[in-house]
Amino acid sequence: FYKSFVLQNIKKITECCSRYTFVIEDFGCLGFSIGQHLIMRASVDGETVSRQCTPISPPSAPGFFEVMIKVYPQGRMSKYIKTLKEGCSVEWRGPLGGLDYKPNEHNHMLLLAAGTGIAPMVQVLRHITSTDEDYTMVRLLFGIAKYKEIYLKDELDELKRFWNVSILYCLSDETKVEDLKYGDEVHCREIDEELLEVELSKYPTPPHVLLCGPNAFNSRFVNYLKKRAGSVTWHVF
């Protein structure tokens, strides 16, 4: 069922993407598990529309939850999102779905994310790095247009400090980065099959692959993994 939550804060990340913080009554918490998402519902031009969003706040965050939402010029739900103001109520359902994850089930994991598809990957990385006995080595390839537009950069910087996490930012709209932060690894091209093959070839045994991005992105790389020799396993959010 859907429940209304009050929008407490809107923080712009880029021109078309913002972080939205919602209040949970009685200082409660969502308590979602790894990889779960929420569904937002609204009425637009007399019709009910919905959109799936993955929380970017920690599962045990007290009294609030936070999501990252991108608006699109012709999007029907985007039309509604553009009207949101602090103090208004929004209907949400969930948490739903999830990832059947067991610590150390895979020696290596390779995460492929594009745009707001970074949200569930942050969940996964937080879960692994907060579990003392989880020694899974994780590599994230994050596709975004420009270096200065990297979503959740502060969170990713913190996660990258862990010994078992590495991140490659794949920049589709830049050929050179002028103000590269020390320690950041960039690739001035979009994620493609050639790059994926280079990454996969580094592992002595195939890593488990997680994917999250637009449908075309997910389909493209699932098709590649299906055709590739070797027993690569994967999960699409």
TrEMBL record:
FAD-binding FR-type domain span: 1-102
Keyword Lyase annotated: no
Binding site for FAD: 51, 70, 77-78
UniProt GO MF annotations: cytochrome-b5 reductase activity, acting on NADH
Keyword Thylakoid: no
Annotated keywords: FAD, Flavoprotein, NAD, Oxidoreductase
Cofactors: FAD
Top EC class of this enzyme: oxidoreductase
This enzyme's EC code(s): 1.6.2.2
InterPro entries the record matches: CBR-like (IPR001834), Cbr1-like_FAD-bd_dom (IPR008333), FAD-bd_FR_type (IPR017927), Flavoprot_Pyr_Nucl_cyt_Rdtase (IPR001709), FNR_nucleotide-bd (IPR039261), OxRdtase_FAD/NAD-bd (IPR001433), Riboflavin_synthase-like_b-brl (IPR017938)
Family under the similarity heading: Belongs to the flavoprotein pyridine nucleotide cytochrome reductase family.
PANTHER family per UniProt: NADH-CYTOCHROME B5 REDUCTASE, NADH-CYTOCHROME B5 REDUCTASE-LIKE
Protein's name according to its UniProt entry: cytochrome-b5 reductase
Source organism of this protein record: Hyalomma excavatum
